[in-house]
């Protein structure tokens, strides 16, 4: 049963409404997944305003962070970036064009195979991501300031387990859909 006390939030009210309207169903998953979606949207909004102030987008920050954490020489192909980020290869190419105009990355070809093109951090790009990432972590810590270290560890473990559960469900659903066709 959901919490209908004065501490109830919008999600609690949604769950309570469904419990009242469809007592034959268990809407408790909304308490988890609904909050995760709302939380993700709120975090994205906070981060977007911060990135806007610093001349970045979430996508450009993701690419810069991806290159920076890869270690020297801080470069990857568009395909490697797409695999290890939240963007498609087409999205990466568009983003890299803009980032190259901003002198955040440069495109580099290897001597071994001139067909292979890497996106590589420029000195300016490295300075931008180093400053932005430090501020990004500070913002994240402040957003989670209401939780203790123990709660943060527990939440991270539970979210990891929840993600594995969703991935396993998705794999089963995909397999079932493939077998049905």
Automatic annotation (TrEMBL):
PROSITE patterns attached to this UniProt entry: HTH_MARR_2 (PS50995)
Domain of life: Bacteria
InterPro entries on file: HTH_MarR-typ, MarR/SlyA-like
Domain (HTH marR-type): residue spans on this chain: 29-164
Protein name: MarR family transcriptional regulator
Organism: Paenarthrobacter aromaticivorans
